[in-house]
Amino acid sequence: MALKSRNKSDASFSMSSMTDIIFLLLLFFMIASTMSSPNDMKVNLPQSSAKTATKAKIIKVGITADGQYSIADNGAKPMAVQFDEIEPYLQAAHAADSTTYVALYADEMVPYKDVVRILDIANENRLKLVIATKVKEK
Predict the structure, then answer these.
(1) Does domain 50-135 have CATH number 3.30.420.270?
(2) Structure pTM?
(3) Contact, 134 vs 106, CB < 8 A?
């Protein structure tokens, strides 16, 4: 009796499915890492070692620790204002000179929501805003 040879199946492995899985995992981790935000950062503001100055027109918006607002236009004496008066004042100043900067002078004890309200006004009106800090003492 004659023995017949069997057809042996090829033991090769297709790598295309493996590379698909690797690219999907890579994509997943790239998206997941951009969505997570670190919560353990300690922010101690407002101090800075950088000293920058500008020659453009600057409107100073001040917030005291007890929540009172003030505006000073280009080195003038600060005048106390209500929060509702800030946006029209800044809009008028920006309409007169589009290179105007708004410098926010907020006490370090001011609640962050008060700072964000001024940031929102600047953002909505496309104003250039800088946050003033004091120089860090060595």
Answers:
(1) yes
(2) 0.57
(3) no
